[in-house]
Amino acid sequence: MCGIVGYVGPRKAIPVLLEGLKRLEYRGYDSAGIAVIADGTLVIEKAAGRIAALESQLGKGGAAATTGIAHTRWATHGAPTSRNAHPHSDCAGHIAVAHNGIIENHAALRQMLAAKGHRFVSETDTEVLAHLIEQFYHGALDEAVATALREVEGTYGIVVISVKEPDTIVAARSGSPLLLGLGDGENFVASDPSAVLAWTRSVVYLDEGHLAVVTPSGYQVKDRHAVTVSTEVSQIDWDLTTIERGGYPHFMLKEICEQPESLRNTLRGRLLDEEGTARLGGLNLSPEDLLKVDRVVLTACGTSWHAALVGEHMLEELARLPTEVEYASEFRYRNPLVDERTLVIVISQSGETADTLAALREAKRRGARTLGIVNVVGSSIAREVDGGIFIHAGPEIGVASTKAFTSQIAALALFTLYLGRLRSLSILQGREIVHALKQLPGQLEAVLARRPEIERLAERYARATNVLYLGRGYNFPVALEGALKLKEISYIHAEGYPAAEMKHGPIALIDELMPVVFVAPRDAVHAKIVSNIEEVRARGGRVIAVITEGDQEIAGLVDHAITIPETLDMLTPILSSVPLQLLAYGIAVRRGCNVDQPRNLAKSVTVE
Ligand code: AGP
Fold first, then answer.
1. Catalytic residue from among 2, 257, 301, 593
2. Cα–Cα distances in angstroms (integers) from residue 599 to residues 32, 551, 591, in the given order
3. Which of 113, 177, 219, 323 would be a feasible disulfide site paired with 296, CB 3.0-4.6 Å?
4. What are phi and psi of 490, to 5 degrees?
């Protein structure tokens, strides 16, 4: 949720750290800070608000420093004030620490340290780390950090500097991502590759429990027992242009418009026309292993959970395998029934969501086979699953997930196709799905061409205070996702429901002021949803509907229709979700909301 960046080398550290922080701002943005070592002293600057606020308050202090750490925060303990912003320091002002994660036993540690005379200035859990390290410092920063971390319960990705070792950053992780960026005579530490991409594409992802000592000329990684471990250098396969807005006013709009391309990337090299199946090289499960599976559990959070609901429908309908969807946060604590014949699929754009990662670990502990549907290569989930499917959607910077959602559904369709063909799906059915998947990127272009009419709708409904989203079958999860998109970026209250459930309660809300968005492509439940639209109209509700091109029946019933091209029922969510993304975007912009960084949210939720 928060972002970390660190630098050691010959350059002036502050501009490097600020550049890195700006790349990380999408992860958390309520306050920020920098600590550098200049002439044997620690210079720390912190500010509430955006990186720009920090930048404008920086004076000349520390300008020549070449070692430093920085942090952008998403508050967990203590309000987002400048005092609570990271980095935090010890009593002597020798050590600075920036931290992602939560120190769960911070209260007990604070009490113990206070009894030893340590004075605290913030309300954060992180500050105890600085004092603990001070307490254990006997001439070697890495040893002090390792000893301090043995006292800690919770999760952390930390970077630490000390005036006593001015050319060194100590970095350690447990539960929060951290990587080293390798340069020539300089090195970087960051919580996310985008922070180092301007300088290097060579990175080392730290493993759980590992601690790194980083200097300008090299790095050393040790495990929990202080034994040096070997590391693998990975190359980031995207460049700066992929994490810049490229002429779009917001990342969210850019990412919505990228969907034809991101979907092509998800499908590339994975469709086998003749055999009517998919090629999925990363599953690490043989066909025999897969045929032993008697149940699938899909687990995820937020938008990824909505994709999982679409996946459940596909897997049951086409692979004929019992499938359940669980919120990762519930799954992990409810003593789930999972064994070696259960396939647990975790879905996560970031690959770092704390609840999803914990659900994965719980599933593995109980003996399940695990797969991940993940966007970020090198992320914790990608590294801990037995196998999986990378969605290759490219970096998603806007906090509201868009292109990852459509690519997650496409990946689930590929998996359904592969598993279905192993089980009961005929070659003809398989070929039909392959053909339909291939049409999707072009069809998405047609949907995006509807943007001007969706903008007009956004103008009309920008002042709504409540919106109801309704869908059935494959498009019930799209209704949930449409409502989530609207509420998270425009702050309008919105609810998603299965359309037929409306009459069991939400129908009471409907009057002429209530816009109701139906996701109603021509599919197996089309006739049923027509009746639901009639029910809303009978009560004076304003109806917007996403329908299939040429559907005169619904077009004649509703106030506004947005059309999408015809496709297989199972793939309609990939097309029908895009108008809802554009509608939420258009409304949020008109309400003057910060679309890419909505209040209270963060891109990747690495705390419980
Ligand atoms: C979506 O717009 C969200 N901001 C959020 O619900 C997100 O999908 C959720 O936190 C899960 O993230 P993940 O896919 O990175 O695990």
1. 2
2. 16, 39, 14
3. 323
4. -110, -10
Nearest-angstrom CA–CA distance, 201 and 351: 20
Q: How far is Cα 51 from Cα 67, in angstroms, rounded to an integer?
A: 19
403 an active-site residue? no
In terms of Cβ atoms closer than 10 Å to its own Cβ (0-12, 13-18, 19+), residue 120 is middle
Ligand 1 nearest atom to the CA of residue 300, by list position: 16
Answer whether 122 contacts ligand 1 (Cβ < 6 A). Answer: no
Tokens of 210: 């590992």
> From ligand 1's centre to the CA of 478, what distance in Å?
15
Question: To 10 degrees, what angle do helices 403-422 and 302-318 make?
Answer: 20
Query: Which residue type does 565 have?
Result: P
CA of 127 to the centre of ligand 1 (A): 28
C-alpha distances (whole Å) from 251 to each of 32, 333, 387 are: 21, 35, 30
Which of 191, 326, 350, 357 to probe ligand 1 with, by most ligand atoms within 8 A of CB?
350
Nearest in space to 309 (alpha carbons), one of 320, 319, 299, 318: 299
> For the chain (length 608 residues), average pLDDT per consecutive 10?
92 96 81 94 93 89 95 81 94 96 92 96 94 97 97 94 97 93 97 92 95 98 95 88 83 96 94 96 94 97 98 97 96 89 97 94 96 92 94 91 98 98 96 98 97 97 95 98 97 94 87 92 93 91 96 96 98 98 98 91 76
Whether 2 is catalytic: yes
Q: Ligand 1: does its nearest atom lie under 6 Å from the Cβ of 262?
A: no
Can you tell me the distance from the alpha carbon of 292 to that of 500, in angstroms, rounded to the nearest whole number?
36
d(CA 468, CA 483): 7
Beta bridge partners of 516: 468, 543
